[in-house]
Amino acid sequence: MPELPEVETVARGLRQAILGRRILSVRFGKTDFIDDPAALEQHLPGRQIEAVERYGKFILLRLSAVSRETRVAANGDAAQASLLVHLGMTGQIAPSPAGRALEKHTHVCILLDDGRELRYTDARRFGRIAYLTKALLAEELTGFGTDPLEVSEMEFANRICGRRARIKALLLDQSVLRGIGNIYADESLWKAKIHPARLGAKLSRKQAETLRRVLRHILQKAIVLRGSSISDFLDAKGEPGEYQRHHRAYGREGKSCYRCKTRIRRAMVAGRSSYFCPTCQHSPRGFAALPLLGKNGRKNKRTEGSTGSGKRRAQRNRREEMGNHL
Ligand SMILES: [Zn+2]
């Protein structure tokens, strides 16, 4: 599922493509992932897209107040508002010429004043779209942790080192830091040589600072490469990201560690598949990795391509993501 670098990539693409456009109308396919479809129909038309921002894994389209010339708000709610978009696992949002045939699973089309439509497609519909007034948005955004690209050394250490939870769980917890998911948690822990099952409270301040530094570096590099395309992530131009080529731990079970050649192992931590090097990342006492698939490496080989078992692995990963799609 899209994490911070992927969502940032989409937000940047949208900023280039649709900033300043005015919304004319909205139409829907399926609406079960939209908070209040009628609110979108009622309140979006006439508003201008004033900013496109990322907040954790959310995309926020900041919408202008309704101007008198274009439309008088039916219920008096004409103040600035926001459209919140969460891509869930398979959501994609991109502008398209209004006359172009709809892709399969297109569920929202927002007609813009330049003849294009902002289209949202989502095969699984684990995403979410919501029209939010200023007050509702503030309510929605309470309880989130700091953005990992902005968190200070002291704040990071305070949020991690005092906690009796596993570091992997803390990284995934959106109230600790916002925007990190399974991929970038595993990648940063590998880089920092910290086992995912270690308790936050057991990390030294120095280890915490290393983790903060590498996490930030990895996220920034992934943004430059437009994120990771594991299954079906595409940016706002419909292009896949490239950071998956730089993964060192995530999805590499049975393959050699880039540092020490030990085979990467997988374990369930915080209810999620977690990939790590058993040599570089010392496990807490008594913590066991899952057995490697196949002694002859056959199964491991099969997981490399887009073969059956690779697909099954992707499905397994997606199922796990479902439990964590905020
Ligand atoms: Zn290693």
Notable features of this structure?
326 residues, alpha+beta, N-terminal domain of MutM-like DNA repair proteins, Helicase, Ruva Protein, domain 3, 2 domains, four-stranded antiparallel beta sheet, 9 helices, 29% helix, binds zinc ion
Descriptive report:
With 326 residues, this protein is of the alpha+beta class. The protein has two domains: 4-140, Alpha-Beta Barrel (N-terminal domain of MutM-like DNA repair proteins), CATH 3.20.190; 153-295, Helicase, Ruva Protein, domain 3, CATH 1.10.8. It has nine helices and ten strands. The protein has a four-stranded antiparallel β-sheet with strand order 1-6-7-5, covered by helices on one side. The protein has a four-stranded antiparallel β-sheet with strand order 2-3-4-8. A hairpin with a 3-residue loop joins strand 6 (106-112) and strand 7. The protein is elongated and about 65 Å long. The termini are close together. The model is unreliable at 299-308 (pLDDT under 50). Zinc ion (ZN) binds next to loops.
